[in-house]
What does this fold into?
Amino acid sequence: MADVSGPALVVGGSSGIGRACAEALAASGWDTKVFDLKPGEEEDAVALDVRDREAVFGAVDELAAAAGGLGAVVYAAGTARVTPILEIEGREWDLVMGVNLAGAFHVLQAAAPHLAAGGSFTAISSIDSRAPVPGLAPYCASKAGLEALVRSAALELGPAGIRCNAVLPGLVRTPLMEAQLERPGVEDAFLAQTPLRGIAGGGEVADVVAFLASPGGRWITGASIPVDGGMSLTEHPKLH
It folds into this structure.
């Protein structure tokens, strides 16, 4: 665990990669708190829609006041829809951008004043930020924007000793991906185009997130780290 006071906050920490991050941070010794749109059964988890700026600031301020600050923040909230670009409606674009990008900005802006020197902010992006994927225009755009936000934050918050990084998963077996993986041929296509020939669980990503929050990651900031089994070295399988 990093030598900083305050808990680790995982936003979007009730399922998928976010839940794995919360578990990995807790296993590393962090007092871990979870915010999520649908908190599930986690004790003390807080229900929060990250698109609601005022609600985000209120929840973060309340947690920080009770805990005496924050030690690490992980932004793992995210959503996606598979729709050809000419068929995307405004509400779909607004949803994906609102959760994946605007929500991250809200959390970063609310949390940063409560992070002491040595603290960190880590965003879960995607290798899809680097190359277009047919049917995922809002998702790809939002993740590219998220990484630009992280780099800007690293530049501006670095003098205060706060590190900001992005982790870029490839295919991970999560509730968000299950419907796609169940389609005939999709899982085999991903396996064929992943050099390590496997599908990650949330733990493979979460271990890197926990490292970035630890003393081992103390000299890493502004980085976008692929955690994808090499998938970004090849062409992304089509999803529609």
Notes: The beta strands are 8-11, 32-36, 46-47, 70-75, 115-124, 163-169, 224-227. The chain has a mean pLDDT of 93. The chain is about 40% helix and 15% strand. The longest helix spans residues 90-111.
